[in-house]
Structures are given as structure tokens and as C-alpha cells.
Design a protein that fits this description.
Length: 541
């Protein structure tokens, strides 16, 4: 069979969208504390900003699927990947407009709605862009192209906070509480006006680009009524699980045992986790008995891949969200809140390091050149992270030995030889090992172990996505939508770890056991997906 050549011109154009996602998302790191201060919110209320983002991904992808099911067609496929991305960008621009109006009216709920609309646009963009990247070349190397997009996305995430801080405060140095408190609403309006303009500009560039094919898929997948009904039931049950948690923050807590309240909240959140796991496993086993009516969910690599995306996003966000509290403990440095930024930056920057290395395989260079790049590129990325953090006014010397972890990752990349299933299995195992070290040690070794989880997570999205959508054919767009829904893991798993850490009998260090369980499942999925795909004659490794 003739190997499909990569469309590098289209690939270069599409990667700009990945940069955009990272750049915009980085603004929330400043916007969350601003809203907390300006509207006198507690920590939970301020986190509704992130919750609105994750919820929008799930509901946006579910809405597309439900609309397509009612009309008997694949909406994204009929529009074409290119046009769908453009529509998503325009929708996000509308969300930026809603943000501007809400900021002007001093309405926090309106701001959440604006951010929700922005993320709905992101949901459509991601549903279209990820399978599009795979379609631009050989499906077996699709994870490399998504890795390239992820590398550009991580660059946007790294540079975004500096650019946003410069735009809002006139300085790229570290932002403190006093600067956030003095932030003028007019500057926030200007920021989101610029964001909206950028959305529209990228939409115009992409829409009129002749190098990017339309990506239309006119194949009509069979109706997936069973999948839709399962997801709708899951959504209803999730609402029932989340409602008591939100209501508990509205009621009076004076005279009530706070420990009891926290346990109750954790139980409801855990129930939400069980709803997702049981719902996906129900679809997995039922579709294996009778595939009719399940659509993309009839493929085992897709259903278990949905759970893999769920736990991957969950563990990534959970570690990043709970790292600050971990670092405040005396056993792990006893850092003040103002001193933890370099560590958080290195955790998220570790994703950029890994994705830059993974992106090397995309380019048409010799094997010797690839090997050289795999040794040099990660240290260039490491230098970018250290340099940008230093320029932002932070002390970075404590991170200088982190290069040892990077060397271990380079060895893992060379060992796995660009094989998605093997790569996911090896990096998942490294994640399990890192969590084990973090749970059993203290000091800088435990800190480095948690930071290295970012290196382990760096290549998981593209590996899972390419494995889960392999062999789906006319169900590819539908399957991509299902995977995007599972970004919901970032809204469920982190709060569970947070509530677990609040229990005196557990504590922050032991709470990271959840991360170990997530990585362990990803190792299992790597093995299981390989078996499933080989049975289907696709010969993935």
C-alpha cells in the first residue's frame, strides 16, 4: 500500500490554531485572581471560570452530536474540517464580545457566559482540528502531527502569561496581589477586544487559505441513538451529582461540622466520577454484544479511549492545580504562595518540552538528524521556560537539576521509536513511577517527581487520539467529538483530589495516589488498544 504523503503546507497553517488555544487559555491565570479580588469571591467561586471552560467542551461536543443525530448526518464532516474550524473561531469571537459587554456591566455571571461561549468555539475547533491533523498524512504518524500542534500550543501557553501581563500591567515581571487589585476594567475590555480581533483574523486567514483542503467527509455514519441516549443519561446524572455540591456553598454553614460538609461534597463528586466510568464501560460492553445503534462507540479503541482522555486530562489538571498546596508543606520546601510560580511554570512547561521532542518526527529529515534534534530540542525548550520565568522576575536556580528528568524522557522517546501504543505505555509507566517517588520521598526529589509528570503527560493526548480514532472511517468525526467531550475529566478529577487532600487522615501528599491510578489506566489502555487494533488488521504498535 502506498504511504500517504504529509501535506506540510496545510499542517503549517493549522498549527497557528493550536498556538491560539494556548495563548488565550493562559490569560485565565490572571483573570481568575482578578475576578476573585474584584467581585469578592471565595476560592470555589473563582474556580467557576475553569469549570465553565471544561463544561463547555463537554456540552459543545454533545450538542454537535445530538444535532447531527437528529438530522441524520455528521455535521462537522458535512461542513468540512476547514469550515468547522472557521465557524468555531467566529463563535469564540462572539464569546469575546459577550465578555466585553459583561465586564463593562460588572456582571460576573455574564463573564462566565462569555467564557463559556469562547470555550464552545474551542470545542468545535478541537473536534475538527485533531482528526484533520491525522488526515493530512499517514494515519500511523498522526500522533506526530498532533504532537507538533501540541508543541505550538505549549509555546502559546508559555508566552501567553508574559504577553497578557505586559498588556494589562505594562510589565512582564511577576504579577502580585496588589497589581491584580489595581487592575482597571478598561484594560480587561481592551484585552478581550484584542482577543476577539485575533479570533476573527485567524478565521479569515484559514478560511481563505488555498493550502488547507476543505476536509469534507460526506459519508453518513449509521445512527448512534444508543450512544446519544447513554450520554444524555450520563449528563442528567452528572447534574444530579454536581447540584448538591453547588447548593452546599449557598447554604449557611455556621454551626455545621465543616469536615462533614467536605466529606459530603467529595462523595457527590466521586459519584460524578462513577457516572462517567460506569457510563463508558456500559457502552463498551453493550456495543461489543450488538454494535447496531452505537456509532463510533462500537469500536473498543474509541470507548476505552474516551476514558483514557478523561483520566489523562484529569491527572494533568489535578497535578497542576494541587502542586501549589504541595509546595507549601514544610517537607517539600515550605514555599510561600509568591514563590511557587517557577515550579508551576516548569510543570506546564514540561508538556512543551515533551511535545517539542515528539514533533521532531513530523519533519522530513534523516534519522541521524532526528536523533540529534531529540537531544537538542528539549534543552532549547528547557531554556525557553527557564529564561522566560527568570525574565518574569523569579528565582529559578532550584530547577537547574531538572535536566536529569529531561534526559530520562529523551531515552524514553528513543526507546519507543515513534510507536503510539508503545509510547503511551512507556510514558504512562514513567508517570506511575513518578507518582510512586512523590508518595514515598520528600524534599526536592518529591518535587521533581511531580514536575516530571508533566513530561509523562506531554505526548499522551496525540497518542490516545490517534489510537482511539484509528480505523473509525466514516465515524472519525463522531469519535473525535466523543473524545473532546471527555475533557470533562479536568472538571471532575481535580476537585476530588482537592477534597481528598482536605481530609486530615489523607493529606496533600497521599492525595496524589489518584494520579497514580490514572497513569496505571493509561498503561492498560496502551496495551488494550494495541490488541484491539491488531485484531482489526490495522497493525498499530
Amino acid at each position: 500500500m502506498t504511504k500517504q504523503e504529509t501535506n506540510y503546507s496545510a499542517l503549517a497553517t493549522l498549527t497557528t490554531v493550536f498556538f491560539f488555544w494556548g495563548f488565550i487559555a493562559a490569560g485565565n491565570s490572571i483573570f481568575i485572581p482578578f475576578c476573585k479580588n474584584y467581585f469578592s469571591l471565595d476560592q470555589f467561586q473563582s474556580q467557576l471560570i475553569d469549570f465553565a471552560f471544561y463544561l463547555a467542551y463537554f456540552l459543545g461536543a454533545l450538542g454537535l452530536f445530538a444535532a447531527g443525530s437528529s438530522r441524520g448526518k455528521d455535521i462537522v464532516g458535512s461542513w468540512g474540517y476547514k469550515k468547522s474550524i472557521v465557524y468555531g473561531l467566529i463563535f469564540s469571537a462572539m464569546g469575546a464580545g459577550a465578555m466585553i459587554i459583561s465586564v463593562y456591566l460588572d456582571n460576573f455571571i455574564g463573564m462566565l457566559l462569555g467564557l463559556f461561549i469562547v470555550a464552545l468555539g474551542f470545542s468545535l475547533q478541537q473536534t475538527s482540528t485533531n482528526p484533520f491533523m491525522i488526515a493530512l498524512g499517514d494515519p500511523k504518524t498522526g500522533s506526530n502531527r498532533i504532537n507538533l500542534g501540541g508543541a505550538v500550543n505549549s509555546l502559546g501557553t508559555t508566552l501567553g502569561p508574559l504577553v497578557v501581563a505586559l498588556a494589562l500591567f505594562g510589565s512582564a515581571t511577576a504579577v502580585d496581589d496588589s497589581m491584580i487589585a489595581s487592575l482597571s476594567l478598561s484594560k480587561v475590555i481592551i484585552l478581550y477586544a484584542g482577543v476577539g480581533a485575533l479570533f476573527l483574523a485567524v478565521a479569515l486567514i484559514l478560511g481563505y487559505s488555498k493550502s488547507v483542503p476543505d476536509g469534507i467527509n460526506n459519508e453518513i455514519p449509521e445512527k448512534a441513538s444508543k450512544s446519544l441516549n447513554t450520554l444524555l443519561v450520563m449528563t442528567g446524572l452528572l447534574i444530579l451529582c454536581f447540584a448538591p455540591v453547588f447548593n452546599s456553598y449557598r447554604g449557611e454553614t455556621d454551626g455545621v461540622d465543616k469536615a462533614s460538609i467536605e466529606i459530603t461534597r467529595m462523595l457527590w463528586l466521586t459519584s460524578g466520577l462513577c457516572v462517567v466510568i460506569i457510563g463508558i464501560l456500559f457502552a463498551h460492553f453493550k456495543s461489543a454484544i450488538n454494535p447496531k445503534g452505537w456509532g463510533a462507540m462500537q469500536f473498543p479503541q474509541l470507548t476505552l479511549g474516551m476514558l483514557a482522555i478523561f483520566v489523562y486530562v484529569g491527572v494533568e489538571v489535578a497535578i497542576g492545580s494541587n502542586l501549589g498546596e504541595f509546595l507549601k508543606q514544610p517537607l517539600f520546601g515550605g514555599y510561600e504562595a509568591s514563590e511557587i510560580t517557577p515550579f508551576v511554570a516548569m510543570f506546564w512547561g514540561s508538556l512543551m518540552i515533551g511535545r517539542w521532542v515528539g514533533a521532531v518526527n513530523v519533519f522530513p529529515v534523516t534519522e541521524k538528524q532526528k536523533l540529534l534534534l531529540k537531544f537538542t530540542v528539549p534543552f532549547v525548550a528547557f531554556g525557553v521556560i527557564m529564561g522566560s520565568t527568570y525574565l518574569a522576575g523569579y528565582e529559578v536556580s532550584v530547577l537547574k537539576w531538572y535536566f536529569i528528568c529531561i534526559l530520562a524522557q529523551i531515552a524514553a522517546f528513543i526507546l519507543t521509536k515513534d510507536k503510539p501504543a508503545l509510547t503511551l505505555g512507556v510514558f504512562g509507566s514513567l508517570g506511575v513511577l513518578a507518582i510512586a517517588v512523590a508518595l514515598s520521598t520528600d524534599g526536592i526529589i518529591a518535587v521533581y517527581a511531580l514536575l516530571s509528570c508533566g513530561l509523562a503527560c506531554s505526548i499522551m493526548w496525540p497518542c490516545i487520539f490517534s489510537l482511539a480514532t484509528a480505523g473509525l472511517g466514516k465515524y472519525t468525526s463522531q469519535g473525535a467529538g466523543f473524545l473532546v467531550m471527555m475533557i470533562l475529566g479536568g472538571a471532575i478529577i481535580p476537585p476530588i483530589q482537592g477534597k481528598l487532600a482536605d481530609l486530615e487522615s489523607v493529606g496533600i501528599q497521599s492525595s496524589f495516589l489518584i494520579g497514580g491510578l490514572c497513569f496505571a489506566y493509561l498503561v492498560y489502555y496502551a496495551w488494550n488498544s494495541k490488541q484491539s487494533l491488531n485484531k482489526q488488521g490495522l497493525n498499530f504498535e
